[in-house]
Amino acid sequence: MKAKKYSKNKLAEKIVGKRKVIPNAVIFDEPCELGYHCPVCKYKNIIKGEYELSWSEYNGFIYCYVCNKDFPSALCQPNIDKAIEIYLTCVLEAKKVK
Whole-prediction pTM value? Predict the structure, then answer.
């Protein structure tokens, strides 16, 4: 796997926080395996045998190695209806926290 450059998004960190790091945890499904894609560069999911997306350090975000950006996972859905559903669910959950 490629070394992550870690884009910085202070607003995302402030609002959603960072994922908890679990030592020796194994990720079973990478974002590409679950149908996610980068909403900007629209790359093929695998380039030179490696996935170009990984789970971001920010909760609910996905990281693109090509763009060096973290994107909200709802934007990374190829199915627009699913993307809208994810976005609205996130807004609903955020309202519950307030």
Answer: 0.74
- Rounded mean pLDDT, 7-33: 83
In a domain, 87, yes or no: yes
3-state SS class at 20? coil
Give mean pLDDT, residues 18-39: 84
Higher confidence at residue 93 or residue 34? 34
Q: How many domains does the chain have?
A: 1
3-state class of 78 per DSSP? Answer: coil
Domain around 63: 10-97
- Flag whether 74 is in a domain: yes
Residue 73's Cβ-count burial label (10 Å; 0-12, 13-18, 19+) is buried
* Element holding 2 (H helix, E strand): none
The pair of structure tokens assigned to 21 is 């790091």
